[in-house]
Amino acid sequence: MPRLLLILILIVGLVLLFYLPIGSIYISKIGGIKISIKKIFQYRFNKIPIYFLVQTAIDLKNALIYVDIEDLVNQYKLGTDIYNVRDGLIEAKNQGLFLTFERACLADRYGIHITKTVENTLKHHVEKKNQSRDLV
């Protein structure tokens, strides 16, 4: 009987180790992303790449852009290119432009490359300022 119990515990432990990404838990705790182990297990079971989303949330947090991990998961499920949104939000923040997460996701769903759009917007503003200086 004790041998059967030990084998059962070993099998359950191996299944949990397979479905519970220890690296994602560790990275999220170190990076300050609040997500429960239950949610990580649920996302892993639903085949959502939680490590990728946690890393994106950490990158956004380091840029002082606060996005809930649940919002990232929901947008991933909708087919939003999270890399495009992340890079666009960070670029907009660095250039001093106001861009919300929701607007960036909407722009991505319309097929807009957000980083290039931010750069073009800045070029347009610089050209406009140069033209007004030339007129004076």
The biggest beta sheet is recorded as: none
Name the average pLDDT.
Answer: 84
Tell me the β content: under 5%
Number of distinct beta strands: 0
Described by the principal axes of the CA atoms, the overall outline is elongated
* CA distance, first residue to last residue: 93 Å
Q: Helical stretch count?
A: 8
Give the C-alpha Rg. 21 Å
Quaternary state of this entry equals single chain
SSE order, one letter for each helix or strand:
HHHHHHHH
Structural class comes to mainly alpha
Which runs of at least 5 residues are low in confidence (pLDDT < 50)? none
Portion of residues within helices: over 70%
Q: What does this molecule look like?
A:
The protein has helices at residues 2-19, 22-31, 37-45, 50-62, 69-77, 82-95, 101-109, 114-135. The protein is built from eight helices and no strands. It is elongated and about 85 Å long. It starts with a helix and ends with a helix. By secondary structure, it is mainly alpha-helical. It is 76% helix and 0% strand.
